[in-house]
Structures are given as C-alpha cells and as structure tokens.
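Subject: complex prediction, re-run

Hi both,

The earlier run crashed halfway through, so I resubmitted it with identical inputs.
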Amino acid sequence: MASKPSAGGSAPHRGRLIYPHYAWVIVAIIAVMQMVGTSIRMAFGVFIEPLEQAFAWSQGSITLAYAISSVVTALASPFAGWFGDRFGARRAMTVGTLMFLVGMLLTGVINSIWELYLYFGVLLGVAQAIFLVPLIPAAMHWFRRHLGMGMGIIMASWGLGPAIAAPIVSLLIERLGWQDAFVVLGVASAAVMLALIVLFKDTPADKNLQPYGHLRGDPETQRRLFEPARTRRFNRYMRRTAAFWNMSSIHFLGCVGHAIILVYIVPLAVNAGVSAVQAAGILTALSAVSIISRVAVPILCDSVGTKTVMAVFFALQGVMVVMLFWTQDLWMFYLFAVLFGIGYGGETGGFPILNRRYYGHAPSGSPYGIQMLGAGLGMALGGWIGGPVFDMFGNYDIALWISIATSLLGAVSIVFLEPTHKLLIPDWEKDDENEKNEKDADAPAAAADRAPGSLPAD
Amino acid sequence: MGSRLNDLRIFGLPAQFVVVVAISLALTIYFGAYAADARVNARAAQSDAAIERQFDFGASASNAAAMRLSGGIAQQRPDGQAAAASAPEPAERQAWEYMFLIACPLH
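This time it finished cleanly. Structure:
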C-alpha cells in the first residue's frame, strides 16, 4: 500500500509517489548491468552453428556448455549473495565485470571443448551469478518505500535482454566471426559496466541522501554496510524461519513450470505443423508480453498484497498451459503466448518484495541468493525433463502436466507462507544484544568458578 | 493452518521444502535412469548389429560358405583372441549412466 506522508513529511517529495532521486540512477545502472552481463547467455544459441562449423563438435556437446553455465550460476548464487552482503554490491560488480571480461576473452581463443566448458560454463557462469544476485538487494537499500516501482524497472530488463542481445550478437558474428565477436562483446560490455560502476553507490548514505520514500521519523540510513558479524547473526536467525527455505522451493517450482514451456514450445509448435520461423516468433511474443507483468507485479505486490499477487500469477502461469493440449493453429499458439507470458513475467518479481516484508531492512543478499539457487536448479530441471519425456512417450503431454503441477503447487505454497503484515524476526538485533549481555554477565562468574580456591557458584 | 504447516519440520527443515526436494529428486532420478537405460540399450543393439555384420561379411568373402564357415573364420582370424579383439565390444556405461541406474530401483 502506498504510504501516506506524515505531517511535515520530507521536503524533497512531500508525499509524492514519483520524484527525482538518485535511486532511479541506481535502478537504471542495475537494469543495464543485468542486461549487459547476462546478454551472452541469452544469445548463446547464435554461437552454436559457428562453433559446430569451426570445430565439428556435436550440438549436444556445445549446448552442454550452456547447461554447465546455468548450473554453475545457480550453485554460485548463495555465494554471490553472501559476497554482496559482506563486501557490498559495488565490489561485487567490479569482480563480476573482471571475471566476465576474462571469460569472454578466453572463450574467444578456445581450441578444445573443455576450454569452452571451463571459460563459458564455469567462469562466465560465476560472473552471471554476481550480476543476478547482489544487485537486487543493493537496489533494496535505496528504497525505504515504493520498492515495487524500482523492482519493476529492473525486472523489465530481464525481459528486454533476450530480445536485444540475440540480434546484436548475430550481427557481430556475421561481420567479425565468432572469435572476434566474443572479444568485442567482452571488451565493450566490460567498458560499459565499469563506467556504470563509477556512478554506483552501495547505500544512499554514500551520497549523503536518505532512501527513496524516507519520511521524518524513519530510522536513519546506515553509513556503513552491514558489518560481517551482524550479517552472520542475521543469517543464523533467518535460517530458522520456514519462509527462508520455502521461498527457495517456491521459486524452484515456478521456474520448472516456465522452463518446460520456454524450451519446448518451439518443437511442440513445429510438431503441430507450425513452421520453425513462426514457432520462434511464438517465443519472442511470449518474452515481449512478459515485460508488462515484470514491471507491474512488483508494483502490485506493494499496493495489493505480495502473497495474493504472487499466487495469482503463479496460478495463471500454470493454468494457461492447459491450452497447449488442444492448440494446433498458429493464432492459438500466439494467444497462448500472450496469456502465458503474463503469468510467466510475474513469477519472479514478487520475491524481493517478499524478502522486504519478512526481513525488513536486514541484509538480504543471502536469502535472495538461496532463492536464486532454487530458481536456477528449476530452470535446469525444467529445461531438461522434456527431452526424456518425449523419448519415452513420443509427445510432451507428461511434461506439460509437470509444468502445470509445479506452477499450481507453487501457488498453493505461496498461500501457506507466513503472513506478510509483520516481520518474521523483528527482534533479531535486540535478541542478540540480550544474548551478548547475558554471556558477558556470566563470564566473570564462570571465570571465578574455574580459578582454584574461588568462591562456589550460585 | 498455514502457521501449523510452517511449524511442521522434517529433519529440522520445513516439511513443504523437504517434500518439494524429495519429489524433484525422485523425478530427476527416474527420468535420468530412463535416459541412461535407453542409451545403454541403444549402444548394445548397435554393437550386436555390428558383430553380426562382421561375421556375415567374413562368411561371404571366404568363397567356401558352408564348408569352411567356421574354419574360414578361423583362417581369417587364426586365434580366438584375435577374433574377439576385432569384434566391437559392447560400450561401457558412462559414469553418469551408471549412477542413475544404480540410484533408480525401477531400472
């Protein structure tokens, strides 16, 4: 719900919903960083044929690099989240950019398949985890209120990235060849990202500002990032909450649900008699429509209610797949793309808002990293499982049922999450202070007990 | 009811999370084992077909089909070991195939 300004609210915005603030610069930087940093994986498909021609590798061997990269990104996500909490997003972005540059340059000079797996799969996979995970909690530092608007813009970049990356990379390969394309893309992307990092600030306090939506009476923004010991303490409390684990499994379910469709909608449409080019257009339409809900869902979560909105979009993603059991004509596939795209686009955007509702302004890199681990593993499982299903049954029906079931199960799981009107661990800092004080109080008595000839303990 | 469900734990983890992980692992192992089994059987069938082709070729090239069939083979491949070595062996299972087939009780 949009907050109403208190009497005599902060001068800069006087209760306005949208006003000039450096938070929007931060949002723009993060959106561009994520688009640029993940572009290479979005456009991986255009490299398959050139690599096949250059080395006579099988398509299966080449696409394994993509799978390795996806799994590595998933597994590296919790570490990336911790890194952002510990050292700040600015340092994380710098490390990620350098890894990206090195990975791209090395991939441009590969001579063997294992080098492709190592440089593209592992090195770039870790870099992409750094671009995907710590930047979201970093954006959260900048919004005291109206976080949904900032998240909406960032999430939209996830839908724009694939649409923009593939044509640009295709053009580079055509003009320069695949090796020089990797080099040029790596150097140009790194230059853009390093320039953006110069403008980036970890917290509003770094620019002597209050967060967006700050009102008189709100706690002051910390100048320093969270202290390591404080982050460790929060993580200890956070792992005891059911929501920490359940949000990861919910994200996993949602990603299984849409990964099956993203990977198999094209062969499914081709089997129904649609041409390959038209089938590719279905996927493009689906991605384009998803941008709308990517922007809208975080805003709706803020104003309507996070659990309600997330459950609705998860259910929409699942229910729409039922259409595919009788869809044969091209126009029906495009209708499916529009309806499914709305649900699919809204699947991810609510998680940062949910983290804010449950954990407030605590360090959120680690919980978000665990959620992205679930998401990555879901994408990997969903992207793979359709293959053996088709081999076993000669059609994708069972895979479609799995997609429906996982999305709906995710919606039900969201309903059973804890209520979002109060923090899950509101007193974690106070509880820890009490624990610390109790330990300090016990320490002198315990020391006296241990000393020879001391007074007996109470 | 949501609160009671969230309090339910299995091995110290939320029951909902454990159930999702268990079902996902079961699906992955089952389909992975199916894929591994199919690959192993396909390679075995290819290997058998190759062996049959090799023996058929040997019989027709010897010019003494029925009489020297076994001897002909012996002449072309004097010792059994050479004959065995030249016939293609069934392909060994790859490590991941072996792991999936061991893990899945249905394959």
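Confidence is low (pLDDT under 50) at residues 61-65, 67-90 of chain B.

- K.
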